[in-house]
Write a structure and sequence with these properties.
By secondary structure, the chain is mostly beta strands. The protein has a single domain, classed as YerB-like (YerB-like fold), CATH 3.50.90.10. Helix content is 11%, strand content 35%. The chain contains 5 helices and 24 strands. Strands 5, 6, 7, 8, 9, 12, 18, 19, 20, 21, 22 and 23 form a 12-stranded mixed β-sheet that branches. Strands 13, 14, 15, 16, 17 and 24 form a 6-stranded antiparallel β-sheet that branches. The protein has a two-stranded antiparallel sheet with strand order 1-2.
Length: 352
């Protein structure tokens, strides 16, 4: 019996299978000679993807920071705004600043530092009756030069550590500079003070922040604003002008740029104007900050109108727009103008 011959199609199939296995063949009649062939190299993949560095949230600015960089407490300070105290030291790095009315129609500041505590700040002055309501939500430390016993007692009753000029615990961290005359010359070694109180907790987030400046409530829904001006009294007035290139509002008072110790104009990402009642106790004005009232929030070159509220001393100021939605600030620094109801505030649109 004769065996059937393998058909060419079967030979081709076998050859294809062998080639697919990395083996070559040579045909000679019906014989198949096999030769090893190197397999194709496995494909390699190169990725240029890098995982983003971990970050944390700066509670008073709404910005991203390196993990562990903001573990300490905030440092607040009562800052002098008398002409003899200017230019102040350290205001340019404050996270939040409040301007408030004091006696004689003048104003002073409460600055709050956490993201960037300067080496030195000041000049500091004495405490006033509204300061416990301003500082309590931040916790941490409050630095000031003293004050009437009743007002100092109010501040000491808060959960904030009181660092007061002239006390044993501030002997090495508070000093008088020769650059200014008393009482407008008490400066504070801010970083040293903060380093002495590492047991104090960091501040809680105070305000709602947008993801970026373009997403802030005022930027998205507000009226375009070239500048805003205000008056606390016949003695004190000021303004903020939008700087599109810097994406900040630049500050002026008494008709001139308001500059820091380095000669740079003070600026803020957000400017918040609160209309507040002011009561008088033995000739001392008190801004009534526990309550509610009219508010304007300026961010990203625009302003939105709304309402502020603060139910008690330890609660932060809450801002909502005219529709009742929470106002989101742009990430960055914020300056509060606590303008009395007897004062004034005006907003100017861009030219044209």
């Amino acid at each position: 019996m004769v065996s059937p011959r393998r058909s060419p199609s079967r030979r081709r199939l076998a050859a294809a299978l062998l080639v697919g296995s990395g083996v070559a063949f040579v045909s000679a009649g019906c014989a198949i000679e096999l030769a090893a062939v190197a397999p194709s190299p496995s494909p390699s993949y190169v990725s240029d993807f890098e995982a983003p560095a971990p970050t944390e949230f700066a509670p008073l600015r709404g910005t991203s920071v390196e993990p562990g960089s903001l573990e300490g407490a905030s440092l607040s300070a009562k800052i002098d705004n008398h002409p003899d105290a200017r230019p102040q030291v350290g205001l340019d790095t404050a996270d939040v600043v409040f301007e408030e009315l004091v006696e004689g129609g003048m104003t002073r500041y409460v600055g709050v530092w956490h993201s960037d505590i300067p080496e030195v700040l000041g000049p500091v002055r004495s405490i006033r009756p509204m300061d416990p309501d301003i500082v309590s939500p931040f916790g941490g430390i409050i630095a000031y030069s003293g004050g009437q016993e009743r007002f100092v007692a109010l501040m000491q009753q808060t959960g904030v550590y009181n660092a007061i000029h002239g006390q044993p615990d501030t002997a090495s961290t508070f000093y008088r500079t020769d650059d200014k005359r008393a009482p407008h010359n008490v400066l504070v070694k801010a970083r040293e003070v903060a380093s002495e109180h590492t047991d104090l907790a960091p501040p809680a987030q105070q305000f709602a922040f947008a993801r970026d400046a373009a997403s802030a409530t005022a930027t998205r829904h507000g009226e375009p604003t070239a500048s805003l001006s205000y008056a606390f009294s016949p003695q004190v007035s000021g303004s903020w002008t939008w700087d599109a290139a810097a994406e900040t509002f630049a500050r002026a008072q008494s008709g001139a740029p308001d500059e820091d110790a380095a000669g740079d104009q003070l600026e803020a990402t957000n400017v918040v104007v609160l209309r507040v009642a002011v009561t008088i106790d033995q000739d001392i004005p008190k801004t009534e900050l526990v309550g509610s009232g009219e508010a304007w929030v300026s961010s990203g070159g625009a302003t939105v109108h709304g309402t502020w509220s603060k139910p008690d001393a330890t609660s932060p100021v809450r801002l909502v727009d005219d529709h009742g939605a929470v106002v989101r600030l742009a990430p960055g620094t914020t300056w509060f103008e606590l303008v009395p109801t007897e004062g004034s505030v005006e907003f100017a649109p861009p030219a044209g």
